[in-house]
């Protein structure tokens, strides 16, 4: 039996890099373990002398229940924490602007690809680390997240602080209904199913049948903006799960039941480079494309919806082709729509 050699990190790593690793480690934990931990603490407190904390939180939760569906409760202090700068520099992550977005309009930004943990979407649109406010002055971004996560006590407040809102129709539409513009709803269009396709070197976008976000933009007259995040699929390796395998079948069944996908991903560790759940230090360049003007149409015909959907796919392909060689993608590589 061959023993796997573990490549340990050297002891003399600069403090800056250690802080970067710590920032990403807490972010990974918040995705994987923080929600279950918050649920455990909530129920555990009920059986201790601190039971009143959970009781009072439940009462407050009752009155605050609709807050996620009404734009959440972004806290600028949380979005601007130094910790997010360290997370940005770990990869690093860069936000690339290709055109102005007029703050007098509202926008629907389609983010592609989802990747395993949408690192680029979080860093660019939930924190101030990559300069979204400076690049697109007057715009406030709202990243959509599965409604399931907003049912976790305590955790729901943490994610709302960063501008996350539920991905159901009512919650996603709330910022777009505000008159005067200045709101940008960011949707990882491929969602949880696309995470199962997030293998390094692949450029498959789950979009062919995804038309809900197109219709939402039409109903509210919000301009569409394609966004492609180069490097998003390079952060983790994933256990081979081609369609037709028992693993893929199991993952898809669990996704249909739970609403979340369970990619079996791995990369490096905190103190060694051989295995673990920490992402690789690989650059992410999130390119925000040109806006597609959309006229308000509360009851679009099927033909109108299909035409705008095709235009969006064409613009996304064009965005990919214009920038791929700048970020290490071979010029012959094509973006595949699934």
TrEMBL record:
<keyword id="KW-0808">Transferase</keyword>
<keyword id="KW-0443">Lipid metabolism</keyword>
<keyword id="KW-0812">Transmembrane</keyword>
<keyword id="KW-0256">Endoplasmic reticulum</keyword>
<dbReference type="GO" id="GO:0003846">
    <property type="term" value="F:2-acylglycerol O-acyltransferase activity"/>
</dbReference>
<dbReference type="InterPro" id="IPR007130">
    <property type="entry name" value="DAGAT"/>
</dbReference>
<keyword id="KW-0472">Membrane</keyword>
<dbReference type="GO" id="GO:0005789">
    <property type="term" value="C:endoplasmic reticulum membrane"/>
</dbReference>
<dbReference type="GO" id="GO:0019432">
    <property type="term" value="P:triglyceride biosynthetic process"/>
</dbReference>
<dbReference type="Pfam" id="PF03982">
    <property type="entry name" value="DAGAT"/>
</dbReference>
<comment type="similarity">
    <text>Belongs to the diacylglycerol acyltransferase family.</text>
</comment>
<feature type="transmembrane region" description="Helical">
    <location>
        <begin position="24"/>
        <end position="47"/>
    </location>
</feature>
<dbReference type="GO" id="GO:0006651">
    <property type="term" value="P:diacylglycerol biosynthetic process"/>
</dbReference>
<keyword id="KW-0012">Acyltransferase</keyword>
<keyword id="KW-0444">Lipid biosynthesis</keyword>
<dbReference type="GO" id="GO:0004144">
    <property type="term" value="F:diacylglycerol O-acyltransferase activity"/>
</dbReference>
<keyword id="KW-1133">Transmembrane helix</keyword>
<protein>
    <recommendedName>
        <fullName>Acyltransferase</fullName>
        <ecNumber>2.3.1.-</ecNumber>
    </recommendedName>
</protein>
């Amino acid at each position: 039996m061959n023993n796997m050699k573990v490549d340990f990190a050297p002891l003399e790593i600069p403090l800056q890099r250690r802080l970067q690793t710590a920032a990403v480690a807490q972010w990974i934990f918040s995705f994987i373990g923080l929600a279950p931990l918050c649920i455990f603490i909530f129920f555990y407190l009920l059986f201790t002398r601190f039971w009143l904390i959970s009781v009072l939180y439940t009462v407050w939760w009752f009155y605050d229940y609709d807050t996620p569906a009404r734009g959440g409760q972004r806290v600028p202090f949380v979005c601007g924490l130094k910790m997010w700068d360290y997370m940005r520099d770990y990869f690093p992550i860069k936000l690339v602007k290709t055109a102005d977005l007029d703050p007098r309009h509202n926008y629907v930004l389609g983010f592609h690809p989802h990747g395993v943990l949408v690192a680029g979407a979080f860093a660019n649109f939930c924190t101030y680390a990559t300069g979204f406010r400076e690049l697109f002055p007057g715009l406030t971004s709202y990243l959509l997240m599965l409604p399931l996560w907003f049912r976790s006590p305590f955790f729901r407040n943490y994610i709302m602080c960063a501008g996350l809102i539920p991905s159901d129709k009512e919650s996603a539409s709330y910022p777009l209904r505000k008159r005067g513009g200045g709101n940008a709803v960011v949707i990882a269009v491929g969602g949880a199913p696309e995470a199962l396709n997030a293998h390094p070197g692949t450029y498959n976008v789950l979009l062919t049948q995804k038309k809900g976000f197109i219709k939402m933009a039409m109903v509210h007259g919000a301009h569409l903006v394609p966004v492609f995040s180069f490097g998003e699929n390079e952060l983790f390796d994933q256990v081979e799960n081609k369609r037709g395998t028992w693993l893929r079948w199991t993952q898809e069944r669990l996704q249909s039941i739970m609403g979340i996908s369970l990619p079996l991903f791995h990369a490096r560790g905190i103190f060694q480079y051989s295995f673990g759940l920490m992402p690789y230090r690989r650059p992410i360049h999130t390119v925000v494309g040109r806006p597609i003007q959309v006229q308000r149409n509360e009851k679009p015909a099927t033909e109108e919806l299909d035409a705008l959907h095709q235009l969006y796919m064409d613009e996304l392909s064009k965005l990919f082709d214009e920038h791929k060689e700048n970020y290490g993608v071979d010029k012959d590589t094509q973006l595949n729509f699934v």
